[in-house]
Amino acid sequence: YAPWCPACQQIEPTWESFAKESEHLDITVGKVDITQEPGLSGRFFVTTLPTIYHANDGVFRRYRGSRTLEDLQGYVLERKWEAVEPVAGWKSPSSIMMHGMAGLFHLSGWIRQIHNYLTGTLGIHVWGSYAIFILATLLLGLFLGL
Length: 146
Known about the structure:
Elements: H1 6-20, H2 22-25, H3 38-43, E1 52-56, E2 59-63, H4 69-77, H5 96-121, H6 126-145
Antiparallel strand pairs: 1-2
GO molecular function: disulfide oxidoreductase activity
Membrane topology: Single-pass membrane protein
Main location: endoplasmic reticulum
């Protein structure tokens, strides 16, 4: 979820109720703020918000059902998740490819922080920051090419 997302704000009371009932369902319910954890949004290939996953024994399934408390509970209690096809191996959050995707999301956040530091703290013009990144990319490419 993301705090600014209207759909996430709409489901939040239901999700909190579902989390309170989780002990009775013998499950663990959690939520992740993708603005604070961008690597996880890359690892889970989050393209829409909110995105709900069911994980059991290292097998991930994306929940696409109704978002009422009764339907969420029924998904678990009636084991409806067994009829849902697991996320493909290469797209599984535990796969090497999705670890790499998470790394790219972390790298983009790091680049954004450097850009904000250059423009905000040091007062370099935006185009100057872009020029620094272009130069760094070229030099890194030359160095790796050697």
